[in-house]
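When time allows, look over one protein, given below as sequence and C-alpha cells. The question is which stretches look regular and which look disordered:
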Amino acid sequence: MRTVDEDVEQHIHAMGEALQAQLAEADISDPVMVGIHTGGVWVAERLHQQLGIKEALGTLDISFYRDDFTRVGMNPQVKPSALPFSIENRHLILVDDVLHTGRTIRAAMNELFDYGRPASIWLAVLVERDGRELPIAADVAALNIHLARGEQIKLNGPEPLSLIIFEAK
C-alpha cells in the first residue's frame, strides 16, 4: 500500500472551480448536489460548501442497486440514502471519489430515477482511472490515473483526506 502524493483538498478546490465554470456556461444557477457513500460524500461536502449550493446535500447508498448485489451480498455498512429535495426537473451534480468501471455511477443513476427525473446529471469525481466497463465519463475529474493490473485506489478520510493505492485481493 502506498499513499498518492497529491494534495486532495487542492484538487477538490480545482474541481469546484471547474464545476462553477461549466455550470455558468450552461446557465445553470441553482443545482442540487448528491454524494455517493462514502468517499463521494466526503468530496461532495467540500464542493457543496465551495459552490454555495442552497439546498442541503443529498447522499446515496447504492448497495441495493449494484448489478453484483446477488454475488457480493449486502454491504455490512449500508447507510440510508437521503435526498432532502425534489430532483424532478432539477440540475443535479452527482459526486463520487473514484470512477473506475462505471458500475457505481450506473447504480446511482438507477436509484436517482426512482426519486424522479432530473433535468440533467453532471458527474464530478476526484479520480478517474482506467478500466471502464460502461460508457460513462466524468464532466469534471481532478485526477486521471493509470494503475497497474491488480491495483486499486481508495480515498481515506474523512479528516484528512488522502488517496492510497493498494493491491486488490
Observations:
- Strands lie at 2-3, 32-36, 58-60, 91-99, 120-129, 140-145, 151-156, 162-167.
- The domain at 29-148 is CATH 3.40.50.2020 (Rossmann fold).
